[in-house]
Amino acid sequence: MKTGFARVTENTRLYGDTYIMWLDSPELIQGATPGQFLMLRCADLLPGLDGAAELTGASIADDPLLGRAMSYHRIREGENGREFSILYDVVGRGTAWLARRDPGDRVYAWGPLGRGYSLPGQSGQNMLLVGGGIGIAPLLWLADEGVARGKSVVLIDGARDAKGVFPAELVPAEAEVVVTTQDGSVGRQGLVTDVFLDYYGWADQVFACGPNPMFAALSEVLTRHEGSQRARRRKPVQALLESAMGCGTGICYGCAIFDRRGNPRLVCKEGPRFELREIW
Ligand SMILES: Cc1cc2nc3c(=O)[nH]c(=O)nc-3n(C[C@H](O)[C@H](O)[C@H](O)COP(=O)(O)OP(=O)(O)OC[C@H]3O[C@@H](n4cnc5c(N)ncnc54)[C@H](O)[C@@H]3O)c2cc1C
Ligand code: FES
Q: Are residue 133 and residue 109 in the same domain, yes or no?
């Protein structure tokens, strides 16, 4: 894990209320894999430090104090080396602060953190990616990697309405995109779980990210499906979980959840990737 300032190279609204920010910091991307995340301090520099060359974590105002967790969304080659992006919805103070950043601004962060997706080896050719809402964020880098490794990728993108759908033209052309919206304004009307089984038989591995109700619904669909196909081999379903985080590094215990056996698990250190059946 590295800590430091990343320089904003681009920050724009991409669709609906969802923004993309590109950041220039080779250190913060070094060793990162799809599904990992970083923590960002969403607070201003202390007065008088705006133009300062040497900055540390102590150069930032302490309100809000806690960092905000964001998945690595994608990587690209920038003018000064590798850049990474975050894809984010504005839901509160921290993300509103992020949305106000301009190119050249600096953001203090630490990462890469957590256990990301485990990419399939030779045997796993067909990757089914399932994103609910902003859960699509980490799946794009995974889709990029899958396609680069010659895998077949299907991405199910579930949103409330057309405004929440990730732009299909930004998904690698080799991947198939299946859109569901709850109001039917684009794609198939319904939830990701309504189309999931159409692709599950084809998939060797499933990678999911979204809100907890989506995972609970996926688990229910799978339990019903497997019950009806008795001797069926269970396929891995890697679920990327969210939980309120204070530190991102295993210190504060703010992100603890209970797995289905009642054992406490730290989402930031043991996750955010869990096997779906460990939790639901
Ligand atoms: C591992 C991980 C990866 C994440 N990746 C992304 C991402 O790629 N893009 C993205 O937009 N968001 C992501 N999130 C969620 C993001 O961290 C929160 O939306 C953010 O912290 C909200 O900060 P805020 O100050 O704007 O809102 P706050 O004012 O702190 O909260 C606003 C609302 O968001 C809820 N909220 C706050 N933190 C979380 C959280 N961690 N999980 C769920 N709800 C929360 C609050 O309960 C409240 O209702 C991720 C969270 C985790 C744990
Ligand atoms: S966020 Fe602090 S222990 Fe997980």
A: no
Block residue for tokens 């996750």 = 271
Beta strand 74-78 pairing with 81-89: antiparallel
**Number of domain units in the chain:** 2
Cα 246 to middle of ligand 2, angstroms? 5
Q: What percent of the chain has pLDDT over 70?
A: 98
Q: For the whole prediction, is pTM greater than 0.90?
A: yes
Name which of 58-67, 94-103, 137-146, 154-163 the model is least confident about.
58-67
For a pocket test of ligand 1, which of 95, 243, 247, 269 has the largest count of ligand atoms closer than 8 A to its C-beta? 95
The string of pLDDT tens digits covering residues 133-160 is 999 999 999 999 999 999 999 999 999 9
pLDDT at 231: 41
Q: Are 249 and 1 in contact (CB under 8 A)?
A: yes
Task: Give me ligand 1 centre to Cα 68, in Å.
Answer: 7
Q: Considering the domain boundaries, does residue 121 fall inside one?
A: no
Ligand 2 lined by 69 (C-beta under 6 Å): no
| Angle, helix 212-227 to helix 192-200, in steps of 10 degrees | 40
Q: Are residues 55 and 171 in the same domain?
A: no
Structure-block tokens of residue 273: 């990737």
